[in-house]
Design a protein that fits this description.
- The protein has helices at residues 22-31, 71-90, 104-113, 132-137, 142-150, 162-170, 187-190, 199-205, 226-233, 251-260, 278-284, 299-306, 337-349, 351-368, 371-386; strands at residues 8-12, 38-44, 53-56, 59-64, 94-98, 122-126, 156-159, 177-179, 213-217, 241-245, 267-271, 287-290, 311-314, 330-332.
- By secondary structure, it is of the alpha/beta class.
- It folds into 2 domains: 3-183 and 370-386, 3-Layer(aba) Sandwich (Rossmann fold), CATH 3.40.50.2000; 187-368, Glycogen Phosphorylase B (Rossmann fold, 3-Layer(aba) Sandwich).
- Strands 3-4-2-1-5-6-7-8 form an 8-stranded mixed sheet, sandwiched between helices. Strands 11-10-9-12-13-14 form a 6-stranded parallel sheet, with helices on both faces.
- Helix 3 links the parallel strand 5 (94-98) and strand 6.
- The protein is elongated.
- The mean pLDDT is 92.
Length: 387
């Protein structure tokens, strides 16, 4: 296939790398594994450190805005103007909208402007991890309205979980919804199943070599239930340590809560960690726990499973697609610190169950959640939409 025959895909995502989130990681992992397509990504800039234009292999990134947190509000106008010229220049075969957000609206606006015969097929991928209440009523009802307006105008719909397909049908979508989940880098499962010594990173964090480590990789926001995790951790034995990787608006509040609970000496707020460096944290840990209150799917859970760390989590949203109690993880009740603590103790104290969970969870990840296979599924969806 020569350069002129290469299908061009215009991707719309409110944020993209170097900003890290499930949607951003999914796009990056998928596009680099589809070399036979050319991707043009329209996204927000959000920081003056981020280049307005960047080309990496088969991907061109166009960042909109002045480099501030308000850039997402500029996307519908500035992004539409830019996209108008990109469409004329490159004649993309398909629009790929990641989440029904500010950026995705550009694709629908462009199709409204263009004559019906010249409209470009739109593939919409639902990645949302927010609660049903937030989707329905968030931003004074505008989020739910955006779903209702976008779904009937979508050529093909994918979602990262069965749960999000169900939400799409609730909002009136009657077509086919294909589950194309987020996944795990092959490095997480290709490494030796015997995890390397943990002492180096433990020493860096000031954790005793023999101390059990509970890990959570999470944005520090209300929906992820880290306050419940801290309260649960306060109920555990004094030799355990909790490592929190990630940052967010609730950090100060959570640091204060850890101090009030008298556990701050055993809680390690590590802030944001480069995604390439996360594997060290998984391999150091004995339990992964994020007691989410809502979840679209959750890449961190799958990464932990692939890395051989038993997962303790709530059965909310897309987590139900991969977590079976006692088989691929331990399920606990949301907003219940005592039950969360019970689930963690269950993993730490029942070695036979933990070994079984590790083996079965890792096998599931290899079977269904590797990026190399997920990229093939997404490529098929995009090619079918081009026809």
């Amino acid at each position: 296939m020569n350069h002129e025959q290469t299908p061009r895909v215009l991707v719309f995502s409110t944020a993209y790398l170097p900003l890290l989130g499930g949607a951003e990681l999914a796009i990056a992992h998928i596009v680099k594994r589809i070399p036979n397509m050319r991707f043009l990504i329209v996204t927000g800039r959000f920081s003056r450190k981020n280049l307005r234009y960047e080309k990496v292999e088969n991907v061109e990134i166009y960042r909109i805005g002045i480099g501030s947190k308000f850039d997402k509000f500029l996307l519908p106008l500035w992004g539409t103007v830019l996209t108008f010229f990109l469409v004329r220049k490159y004649k993309p075969a398909v629009f790929w909208c990641v989440m029904a957000t500010f950026a995705s609206g550009i694709a629908y606006i462009i199709n409204i402007i263009r004559p019906a015969r010249a409209r470009i097929p739109i593939v919409l991928t639902l990645q949302e991890g927010d609660s049903e209440k937030h989707i329905g009523r968030g931003r004074m009802g505008l989020i739910g309205l955006s779903w209702r307006l976008a779904l009937p105008r979508t050529s093909a719909l994918t979602a990262i979980s069965k749960y999000l397909c169900e939400r799409a049908r609730y909002y009136g979508y009657t077509g086919r919804c294909e589950v194309v989940p987020n996944g795990v880098d092959e490095a997480y499962v290709s490494a030796s199943f015997e995890r390397p010594p943990k002492e180096t990173l433990k020493e860096d964090l000031g954790i005793p070599a023999d101390a059990p480590v509970i890990l959570s990789v999470s944005r520090l926001v209300e929906k992820n239930g880290i306050d419940d995790l801290l309260r649960a951790f306060a109920l555990l034995a004094g030799n355990t340590h909790l490592v929190l990787v990630g940052d967010g608006p609730d950090r100060k509040k959570l640091v204060r809560l850890a101090h009030e609970l008298g556990i701050d000496i055993r809680v390690h707020f590590c802030g944001s960690v480069n995604h390439d460096g996360l594997l060290r944290y998984y391999r150091m840990s004995d339990v992964f726990c994020r007691p989410s209150r809502s979840e679209g799917l959750g890449i961190a859970f799958l990464e932990a499973m692939g890395a051989g760390v038993p997962v303790v989590a709530t059965a909310v949203g897309g987590i139900r697609d991969f977590l079976i109690d006692g088989e691929t993880g331990v399920i606990v009740r949301a907003r219940d610190p005592e039950d969360i603590a019970r689930g963690i103790r269950r993993v730490l104290e029942d070695e036979n169950m933990s070994v079984r969970i590790i083996e079965q969870a890792r096998a599931l990840v290899i079977k269904k959640y590797l990026w190399v296979d997920i990229a093939k599924k997404m490529e098929s969806v995009l090619l079918d939409a081009c026809v």
